[in-house]
Specification:
About 35% of the residues lie in helices and about 20% in strands. It contains 10 helices and 17 strands. It has a 7-stranded parallel sheet with strand order 3-2-1-4-5-6-11, with helices on both faces. It has a two-stranded parallel sheet with strand order 7-10. A two-stranded parallel ribbon has the order 8-13. This is NAD-dependent epimerase/dehydratase family protein.
């Protein structure tokens, strides 16, 4: 098959390209060209802000795979390439769902309203809804929409899924203590980028269409932290702080500076990481053991430099201060 990957030079896009090449497909990537594509793929340089960029793509494609979050890019691509591309796969997100407080919802759950303006990161879920609508309007049952949970694996430059295994491997304190959320009701729901890429390529090969929540089965954040600690070989103290303490000390949820990655306050986010992936499982989604993803992510973190400035989590200095405060409050 001849694949078009819109992007292909960053993390997930690169994994999609490698998965397709491993199955002996021809792969053309359209990207700005500031980074290389995986060896074996062809790069067509183009800026998707330019409506004429798609004219550089020649010939027909059996399928395209797009990961954009920008509605203008999604609309521009399907409008320009509808006659050249037979099937279209789009990587959306579980953030499109409107109700984060209700556990156990599937693909039929209500969505956020589609965003009608320019892309805004604060409207990420709404922008992805608008992208989905553009793809479905153009391709109908020839469209495949994947709504992944949080993506993990080596290469996670968001620093969310690498934070905990790295912190357990390299504690910030002299006695090896690590500060963690005491959140027995919180869940995590991850999917390894390599597993998502493999499923996308195989699904396109088989002509699968429809909308799928693509994630692993959810598990408690407590279990995830214990697994990350085990993989990292951490033997120091664990200092657990509850939600009230977290909020009083202004530790942000989920991501960003001075945050607890993957943690979300309860009960308002009780459903965010408890989506039902049964349809994707029935359509062939296979996910590796979470322990393997954590181990590979930690290895990647160690290769890229444990001391680098991070985009998510607590700085070592912040953590030391917070652990001291937690011990005073105990």
């Amino acid at each position: 098959m001849r694949f078009l990957v819109l992007g292909g030079t960053a993390w997930l896009g690169g994994e999609i390209v490698r998965a397709a090449l491993a199955r002996d497909h021809e792969v053309v990537c359209m990207a700005r060209g500031t980074r290389p594509v995986p060896e074996g793929a062809e790069l067509v340089a183009g800026d998707r802000d330019d409506p004429q960029a798609y004219s550089a793509l020649t010939g027909d494609f059996d399928a395209a795979i797009d990961v954009t979050s920008r509605p203008a890019h999604a609309r521009g691509a399907v409008d320009a390439l509808r006659d050249q591309v037979a099937r279209w796969a789009f990587v959306s997100t579980c953030s499109v769902y409107a109700q984060d407080d209700r556990p156990g919802q599937d693909e039929s759950a209500p969505l956020l309203p589609a965003w009608t303006g320019e892309f805004e990161i604060e409207k990420y879920g709404e922008c992805k809804v608008a992208c989905e609508e553009a793809v479905l309007a153009a391709y109908g049952d020839r469209a495949l929409i994947a709504r992944p949970g949080l993506i993990t694996g080596p290469g996670d430059a968001s620093d969310r899924t690498g934070y905990w295994p790295l912190r357990f491997a390299h504690p910030a304190t002299e006695d090896g203590a690590v500060l963690v959320p005491d959140a027995p009701d919180a869940s995590v729901q991850l999917i390894d980028a390599r597993d998502l890429a493999q499923w996308l390529v195989e699904s396109v090969e088989r002509g699968v269409g429809g909308v799928f929540t693509t994630a692993s089965e959810h598990r408690s954040l407590t279990d995830y932290l214990a697994l990350a600690r085990s993989v990292a070989g951490h033997a120091g103290p664990v200092v657990a702080v509850d939600q009230d303490w977290i909020e009083r000390h202004q530790i942000a949820p989920w991501a960003g500076d001075r945050s607890f990655p993957l943690w979300l306050p309860q009960p308002e986010y009780a459903g965010f990481a408890t989506r039902i992936p049964a349809a994707a499982r029935a359509a062939g989604l296979r996910t590796r053991p979470l322990e393997d993803s954590i181990r590979d992510t930690l290895a990647w973190e160690l290769r890229t430099g444990p001391g680098r400035t991070r985009r998510a989590g607590l700085s070592p200095a912040d953590e030391r201060e917070l652990i001291a405060a937690a011990r005073r409050d105990a």
